[in-house]
Design goal:
Strand content: 15-25%
Order of helices and strands: HHEEEHEEEHHEHHEHEHHHE
Number of strands: 10
Distance between the termini: 27 Å
Low-confidence stretches: 1-19
Structural class: alpha/beta
Radius of gyration: 19 Å
Mean pLDDT: 92
Length: about 325
């Protein structure tokens, strides 16, 4: 049993950037571009060349995902506040003590998936769906010899980048409620549900501004998140129907294996689960998520899928996958 409480902050470089308008958007764009170059050099699996047991397990996994002719991937970006202990400045802007960076991450990810393709990288050239939902992007892909439609929906939790504007704000309350419902439905109805945000020391996933210790700007991990585990209890409730569980659940947050893995696997034993094993930088969980999304639209099997999550040394040291092709 562990006796040390690990506080996950999702570490970032100290200096914010504003050239693209949103705080840290440039950083996320650089992370994505760099990882896409690594993925471009990784070959696609030829399922007919795999050993029989690996082929059978891969066909079983994708059989469920592709049975309706659609790969449905949904990304829920949590309320990703970045607290440095001092004021964060982005160019000439004073962002306050804890700006939200999920909006910048959203726009960077959209730029990546709608941008140019290279090599074998396939999480690219998606187009905004014409149904009127601006957060949905679609593309036709070839997965294991089948032409199917890939659908990616990305949503973010922060109403604005400014903590002071979001706390006790009706706009933020509405956004938080919307995101919680969106994530609940993703866990039940999507083929793959990725959460990118804070673990809140086991109290996440979280789509609301942080709860602070009264009179301080310190997050109340021990007295609220770790004690009550509000986000995780909602997540387990969403997965309570065994006939409605996402095939892939990506917990792209700090130390998510220790915080969530055991209960997730017992609640959703048929779901493949992607987790982390340490306090990480946002670069590591963000790029691992990109690797997982790209692996799905390629139809990668066990070894290649796992490699796509772990294309850098830090990812190889800290990103894991369980129950996906076993």
């Amino acid at each position: 049993m562990k006796h040390v409480i690990i506080i996950c902050l999702l570490i970032l470089p100290f200096t914010a950037e504003a050239r693209r308008g949103y705080v840290y958007q440039n950083s996320f764009e650089a992370y994505g571009e760099g990882y896409a170059k690594n993925l471009a050099n990784l070959a696609n699996d030829r399922i007919s060349n795999l050993p029989a047991d690996q082929r059978a397990k891969c066909e079983q996994r994708y059989g469920r995902i592709l049975n309706d002719g659609l790969i449905d991937i949904r990304v829920a970006m949590g309320y990703l506040d970045w607290t440095t202990g001092s004021v964060v400045r982005s160019g000439s802007r004073n962002m306050g003590y804890s700006p939200s960076i999920d909006i910048g991450a959203y726009y960077a990810l959209v730029d990546l998936i709608t941008g140019r393709c290279r090599g074998n990288f396939q999480l690219c050239r998606f187009q905004q769906e014409t149904s009127g939902n601006p957060y949905v992007f679609v593309k036709n892909v070839n997965v294991q010899g089948r032409q199917v439609r890939a659908r990616v929906e990305i949503q973010f939790a922060s109403a604005t980048e400014y903590l002071d504007n979001n706390v006790n704000s009706s706009s933020q309350e509405q956004r938080t409620a919307y995101m919680q419902n969106y994530y609940d439905r993703a866990l039940q109805d999507a083929d793959a549900a990725f959460y990118f945000g804070h673990s809140r020391n086991g109290g996440g996933p979280d789509f609301a501004p942080p709860r602070f210790i009264s009179g301080t700007n310190k997050v109340n991990y021990g007295g609220y998140y770790k004690k009550y585990r509000p986000g995780f209890n909602k997540m387990l409730q969403s997965l309570s129907n065994p006939s409605r569980q996402a095939d892939v659940i990506g917990m792209m947050s700090c130390d998510s294996r220790d915080h969530f893995m055991s209960k997730l696997r017992s609640t959703a034993p048929r779901s493949g689960v992607i987790t982390s094993t340490n306090v990480l930088t946002v670069e590591e969980v963000y790029t691992a998520m990109i690797g997982g999304m790209d692996a799905l639209v390629r139809g990668q099997c066990q070894k290649s899928f796992y490699k796509q999550l772990r294309m850098t040394q830090r990812n190889a040291d800290n990103i894991t996958m369980d129950g996906m092709f076993e």
